[in-house]
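Hey, can you fold this?
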Amino acid sequence: MRIPKAIQNLIESFERLPGVGPKTAQRLTFYLLHVPQGELDKFAESILNLKKNTLLCSICFTVDETDPCSICSDTRRNKTVVCVVEQPLDVLALEKNGKYDGVYHVLHGKIDPLNNIGPGEIYIDQLLQRIKDSTNGNSIKEVILATNPTMEGEATAMYITKQLRINNSKLRITRIGRGLPVGADLEYADEVTLQRAMEGRSDY
């Protein structure tokens, strides 16, 4: 049986998305085939407006509808503390917690030499310039490195730390705590996680 061109095109489009394999792409396509046309039109409109109605904040580079974004323009936020994350999704995750009242800087990636991603391909220079320019009453006093605990995330954090130390010796640089998640068993944890948990121990 020959698959209609319209179906094949959509399957191929879905396959380009991260984490979507051929079978999942086929299931999604055939699911949409049975969705009422009105819902399908709304879905298509949402995709069309994704880029049109969003932009990058010129300060922190997160995605929002306004520039500056709602976080950077919020006068209640502590502008002296900047949390550095890899992706805009990381901002959403930290904001769900509701405990952090500082601002962010989104790198839009991590240093990954195997994929030809160096410091110049992500927003590191903009972070360094942002800290250099902060000389008013809201001058940045602390940078929290919240890159993921992967090899690339660690390399990115180390590179940023080195650059910040060169330019500003008084700046406080911290790394988010890493270790065992709540409900985890010690016997199943890997060596690196256990090491981080021991290093990050606190008074009880």
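Oh, and this one too while you're at it.
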Amino acid sequence: METTRTRELGTGLFIFLGFAALLFLATQTTDMEEYGGDKGYRVTARFDDVAGLKVRSPVTMAGVNIGRVESIVFDNENLDALVTLRINAQFNKIPDDSDASILTAGLLGSKYVGLGPGGSETYLTENSQLEITQSAIVLEQLVSKFLFSQAEKGEDAAPAAAAPDVTPGEQSGTSSD
């Protein structure tokens, strides 16, 4: 009876330590300030297509994470997406004529917003709007365009391939009889 009780306590302790290790990893690998922090300033950008961009997606500049996507809403009047970005307060020298693009991490990775620096002497502040934007490139649309262009090329080549073969003597109108 004593060995069964010892095994049960050992198993319970092992499971408890496993959950504690998972909790520790979750808190150490997640930067909670980026998710809930109210530090920084908001900037908006309008895109024709956000195709897979999500709230909390990273905002980067020169490959460095400088903020997060705070919200994405559809504007009924302009018929486009209004994306609100929260830029961390330490990045307060971004020119106000910078551009925003929706990019993909790798070939099929997640979407994020990439900022390209402008050349202005004035900087983005709270409630600034990025005027120069480039929407997401949708892989399905690219593949579709490629397939349709190949199909059209195939249709153009089909009549030429179906023409009867003509021998050189028949072309000139002379016969070898």
